[in-house]
Amino acid sequence: METVYNFLVGLMQLALxxxxxxxxxxxxxxxxLRGLSEAIREAWxxxxxxxxxxxxxxxxxxxxxxxxxxxxxxxxxxVSEDMSNAANExxxxxxxxxxxxxxxxxxxxxxxxxxxxx
Length: 118
Known about the structure:
By secondary structure, this protein is mainly α. Helix content is 89%, strand content 0%.
């Protein structure tokens, strides 16, 4: 009878040990799943933040480019006005011919010069 009693006590101790191990593993698994769930939620949040930041940077870049475009437009306008004024102030000997024999020769020389450079 004592051997049966010792067998049952040993069996109950084994069952209790197995229940404790299963409980610890379940608790650890649950905590791991919760941690992974929070990591996924944080990752999705970071993706949204990065997307908003990129959109903001693109809008800032567009504004910078528009400002630079206005500045370049003013510079090009000023350069073309200065070139026009300088061309009008040149003595007639340095001005390019507008028509006639010399104009034709000059344009041919320019074409030949461009061909020889390439």
